Amino acid sequence: MPKLIIDDRKIEVALGVKVIDAAEQAGIMIPRFCYHPALGSVGACRMCAVKFLDGPVRGLQMSCMVEAKDGMVISSTDDEAVDFRRFVIELLMLNHPHDCPVCDEGGQCLLQDETVSGGHAMRRYMGKKRTHRDQYLGELVQHEMNRCIHCYRCKRFYQDFCGYRDFGVMGIANRTYFGRYSDGQLENPFSGNLIDLCPTGVLTDKPARFKGRRWDFQRAPSLCIQCSLGCHTIVNARYRELIRIEARYNEHINGHFICDRGRLGFAFANHPDRPRQALIHGSAVTYKDAIRTVADRLSTISQSAGPNAIACAASSRSSVETIMGLKFLAHALSWRSPGFFMDRLQQDKVSAAAGRLDPNLAISLREVEQADTILVLGADPIQEAPMLALAMRQAHRAGAKVAVLDPRPVSLPFDYEYWPMTTDNLNSALQELMRSVLSENAAESYLCENIQPLAIMLQNSQRPVIVCGTDIVNLSVITAAADLALQLQDANKCAGLFYVLPGANAYGAAIASIGSEPFSELLGSIENGEVRALLLVETDFLYHFPDQARVKSALERLELLVVMDYLPNHTMEFVGQTPATISSSVPTSALTYITLPTLTHFETQASFINQEGRLQQATPVHTSGTPLSQLTGGKHPPREFRNDIPGGGAKAAWRIFSELEAAILSSHPAMTSFHDLWSRIEQELNIDVHIENSNEIPDNLRIYSKNISSELYCELA
Amino acid sequence: MQSSLYQSIYEGAYGLIAGFAMTLRHLFRRPITEPYPEFKRQLPERTRATIILTSNPDGDERCVACYLCSGVCPVNCISMQSAERSDGRRHAAWFRINFARCIFCGFCEEACPTLAIQLTPHFETSQRDILKLLYEKEDLLVNHGGKNSDYNFYHHAGVALVGDKGSHVGEEQPVDIRTLMP
Q1: Beta bridge partners of A596
Q2: What is the pLDDT of residues A470-521, one digit of tens each?
């Protein structure tokens, strides 16, 4: 462990750490443009020069190119280094245009910061500036090549890190050009990271173009709910409108980057048709009236047909707070246990996956990068969990072999062995592989000859990872994948298991779904009249269930249908119509349709459990309400004083549950505050580390169960 | 000793008499005070009062809604929303100055990179209704260049909007990326 002194601060770092990182660990930020921890060092910008006063290296050196060694004495504030950096900045600024006022990077620009901090205020060189033509790079990234300082970060990320070839570098010397050969959409599904990586305004966020400055944004650490990985993001909002999403560093999951779906997939929060008003039969009522009506109707139904006639459901996109809140409510009022999945098979598959994970088997996305053999079973990473594809590419770059067993043509940005096989064959192939792992010789006769190379690949591996999808595979494959991983561990390999689940909180839904019936079975209960009232929370059966006509006719048989969602969903649209317009064979006199708007995870504290069992929390970024731009059609804000937020009537789902419980039982509800809710969730999930402040879930908290029907336990490592 | 006593008596008497004499003289003089609303003084050009948004020599608005004025404003009286105009130009979709809050410090004018926002000597803006002191973009926009009538930001910025790349002040022709010739 080398010990060195940087700016009079002693620090001990791990072997192989560059001086620039060692300084950062000591709290000294050396200026840089080309260096990035994920992309490594190239020494292209010459900005990170420091003076080596003593030790194995002497003189002015680039701190990103020198490894920290024992006995080094380094000064980042030495006159020579400071002068050098000032001249470098001046050279980099020679061709930089004076367009900061119309550049979206202004206010969050590394070049701007380091020019100012370097003391370069006045341009001395009076020659002409080099110019470049810009390209159309699709609807996500805006190109303005004049601003480039040639740090090569974009090219290194795009080609080396991601493995896509359509964007790169052309030309030499001062005319170096970063772009495509011709205009066109970037093919890389991670291209949005170029926006974060570019130290100046060459590549900027196109959807957020000219929408505002960083210093005006409300910013909060959040999570991505586009897939089950739970990548960390930073959300930027202004005037009640989400503007953009940036990647947030997380060492266990996404590292420095996020995929384009996560970066762009926030438009639902700004949707002009978002429900913002409580409705009864499509006409606006106050929240209080709506809650009272729901409570009255539910009490009546409960008295006449028993509490078992009331069913409720949420989905895998609902937060832990919503899912658990609904479970507590159903339990307190002895309703049917809430369902979270469309059909039995999906529920069983996700539950099986959640049940098989344990601290020894489950691995994080970061650990996928360290694998030397990856077996992908019935998963399409680019479509189902894009960052997994990027992690697998990093493993492949380090020499890992990847085999994909899938009936579909899967596309990945690196070379891999593709084994097309049907989902049924997948199971038998896994059985064969398991047998081969147990045996000494992979080429034993009973092994199906076709998959022999796979068996040999697994036997030669040290750190194999089994990636298993839960969408197209059979239930048996999910358990077999876990068995195979266990057997590999028995064979003294550092094996890991990585499931891909169908939703941001599918894991949370699975561990809450013990004893609950999926919608396909609930539908039968509605049709035979057992269920009279249905509460749908953040789920859209009319859209997701294949037989829409059947769902519609079933919903019309209900006496009460309450839809709570933050999205304008199809069931809500159906509910929005007054009963008179619904063609119904059953008398609708008693039928009540109620819509209650809820909040997104951008507007309320929301936790999600990712596919690895990791419990994570998103912080709200702003208060819910109609975005100003939608309120005024782009014109100036209204010239009036008012106390409330226009369109700000929505409430968090768990708060609606709490109010419902209070109204029905006409007593003090069990959860009046977020803190109450969380102490109950802690109990329910068996979280033995006490979460002092419900806003701060400890890093690396994972929740597992022995098997899905037994007790939960948590792991904090 | 003696002389200093006489001197102090003299000085005291002089002070009194001279003071009263001045007062007496002013009693018979015409007043030099000029009543304000009837007589309006010509204020220096750089007096800091009401704010305007000026225009380029070609008549187009100068403001690019860069948020520097609102960022520097010590009383947060400037708010705006930047947007992309149909011709691709960055402009303010709306721009509002709350003159009830403005302290006329002139920081916004100093920060403005396009010389759009300028303070004028016009100071008579008081209103009984505070909402009337909320000036919107259409109230602020003028069709002249104010103190710098000949400056056009887009001739110096280097973005291809007013004129193609390479056609602006101090620019070379765009690089041909398909050649490696020096």
Answers
A1: A564
A2: 999 999 999 999 999 999 999 889 999 999 999 999 999 999 988 889 999 9
Residue B179 lies inside a defined structural domain of this protein:
no
Say if the Cβ atoms of A635 and B93 lie within 8 Å.
Answer: yes
User: Cα–Cα distance between A499 and A358 in angstroms, integer?
Assistant: 12
Which A residues 116-155 touch B at CB under 8 Å?
126-134, 144, 146
Average pLDDT, chain A: 90
Residues A83 and A181 in one domain: no
Separation between Cα atoms, residue A16 and residue A28, nearest integer Å: 18
Candidate from A159-163, A383-387, A564-568, A703-707 with smallest mean pLDDT: A703-707
* Residue A281: band (very low, low, confident or very high) from pLDDT cuts 50, 70, 90: confident
CATH number at residue A202: 3.30.70.20
8 Å CB contact of A629 and B81: yes
Q: Contacts of residue A100 in chain B, CB cutoff 8 Å?
A: 66, 113
Nearest CA in chain B to A238: B81
Q: Is the pTM of this model over 0.80?
A: yes
Residues of chain B falling short of pLDDT 70:
1-2
Confidence at residue A585, expressed as pLDDT on a 0 to 100 scale: 42
Please tell me the total count of domains within chain A.
3
Residue A588 within a domain = no
Taking the CA atoms of A415, A421, A423 and A426 in sequence, report the sign of the dihedral they define: negative
Among A128, A634, A639, the residue with its CB nearest the CB of B93 is A634
User: What mean pLDDT do residues A703-713 have?
Assistant: 70
Do B68 and B7 fall into the same domain?
A: no
pLDDT band at A588 (very low <50, low <70, confident <90, very high): very low
A179 and A33 assigned to the same domain:
no
Residues B61 and B139 in one domain: yes
- Taking only the tens place, the pLDDT of each residue in A374-411 is 999 999 999 999 999 999 999 999 999 999 999 999 99
Is residue A214 within 8 angstroms of chain B, CB to CB?
A: no
Can you tell me the distance from the alpha carbon of A363 to that of A495, in angstroms, rounded to the nearest whole number?
Answer: 9
Q: Which of A131, A171, A632 sits opposite B166 (nearest CB)?
A: A131
Could you tell me how far CA A390 lies from the centroid of its own chain? 14
Q: Is B180 a domain residue?
A: no
Same domain, B66 and B118: yes
A132–B153 CB contact, under 8 Å: no
For residue range A564-578, what is the model confidence (pLDDT) as tens digits? 999 988 888 877 664
- Same domain flag for A374 and A496: yes
**Tokens 């940005």 correspond to what residue?**
A413
Does the distance separating the beta carbons of A179 and B137 come in below 8 Å? no
Grade residue A584 by pLDDT with cuts at 50, 70 and 90.
Answer: very low
Together in a domain, A361 and A458: yes
Q: Do A131 and B173 touch (CB under 8 A)?
A: yes
Regarding whether A492 and A358 lie in a shared domain, the answer is: yes
Alpha-carbon span B130 to B10, nearest angstrom: 60
CB-closest option in A98, A209, A211 to B158: A98
Residues of A with Cβ-Cβ distance to B94 under 8 angstroms:
632, 634-637
Task: Read off φ and ψ for residue A712, nearest 5 degrees.
Answer: -85, 155
Per the structure, the complete domain to which residue B67 belongs is given by 51-149
Tell whether A103 is covered by a domain.
Answer: no
Could you say which of A169, A201, A216 is where a domain stops? A216
Spatial distance between the Cα atoms of A377 and A467, rounded to a whole number of angstroms: 6
For chain B, say whether A261 makes contact (Cβ under 8 Å): no
Does residue B167 form part of some domain? Answer: no
| Total number of domains constituting chain B | 2
A102 to B93: CB separation less than 8 angstroms, yes or no: no
Distance from CA of B140 to the nearest CA of A (A): 13
* Minimal CA separation from A652 to chain B, in Å: 29
Domain membership of residue A209 as a residue range: 129-216
Look at A97-101, A424-428, A446-450 and tell me which has the smallest mean pLDDT.
A446-450
Are B14 and B55 in the same domain? no
According to DSSP, the residues that pair with A595 across neighbouring strands are A279, A563
Q: Which residues of B touch A98 (CB under 8 A)?
A: 156-158
Q: How far apart are the first and last CA of chain A?
A: 24
Structure tokens at A453: 């190379």
The reply to whether A358 and A484 lie within a common domain is yes
Q: Is A144 close to B68, i.e. CB distance below 8 A?
A: no
C-beta separation of A565 from A532 below 8 A:
no
Q: Is residue B181 part of a domain?
A: no
One-letter amino acid identity for A379? A
Q: Is the Cβ pair B83, A210 closer than 8 Å?
A: yes
> A579 or A79: which carries more pLDDT confidence?
A79
